[in-house]
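Form 7-S
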Amino acid sequence: PARGESFGNAKTVRNDNSSRFGKYMQVHFNGKFVIVGCSTTNYLLEKSRVVSPARGERNFHVMYQLCAGAKEHFDDMGVHEASYFRTLTKGGVTSIVGVDDKEDFCALLDAMKILGFTQQQKRDVFSIVATVLHLGQVEFCEADSGDGSRVAGGRRGSVGGRRRSSSISTGDLSAIGLKNAARLLGVGADELGAALTHRTVMNVKADLDVKAAAAARDALAKELYGRLFNWIVMKINSATKDTSASSKTIGILDIFGFEIFQLNSFEQLC
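Output:
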């Protein structure tokens, strides 16, 4: 199948390849009933999974695939093995029996090439996925002044290290995550840190406490991934949609199942 499922499917406790978004697919046929194209409208991606997969479940497949294949294809994104990232280990599962994430990553790259993704577009896509992973490493502590919060800091010189070891503190991992995320987004680390720990409304800047800063970090990660997913669906549609007026269609509606998680958000209410 087309590897678009890498971005919208995940392992759940019931299914190793569960679709975590709703979609309406139209399959286009010509007058001889031969398939000539297709298009997809997506609904309500389960963005809560991006920051908090349930126990016994994985995040979206592409994150593990990137971890398995980044060293060979995108070594400059600061991506490590899946066990390095907090958002990929929260569920307690980083692999699926019988599934080779590195092999699937290569298949995904091939599918993207067939669908017309340029090399720069592929780099941009995986840069955003990597940014989401790095944002998940960022943690917060109370500001030195006692008001608001700040990004948990790390030792100087620790950024850019290629391995995680027991000697690296939570603060170090947070600082590394912030700097890698900022670099991939094309902004300064201080600028990103300030955006996550402060809120500006009508030119009035307010400090965010630790809990609110964590919520801002999660909201940014979910929004980045959600917009990326929508763009990928649009890109795939542009490559597969048949625009001839004479084509006939069959519509298929697929809505992912309702699940109750330890932490629930908007997607579970719709």
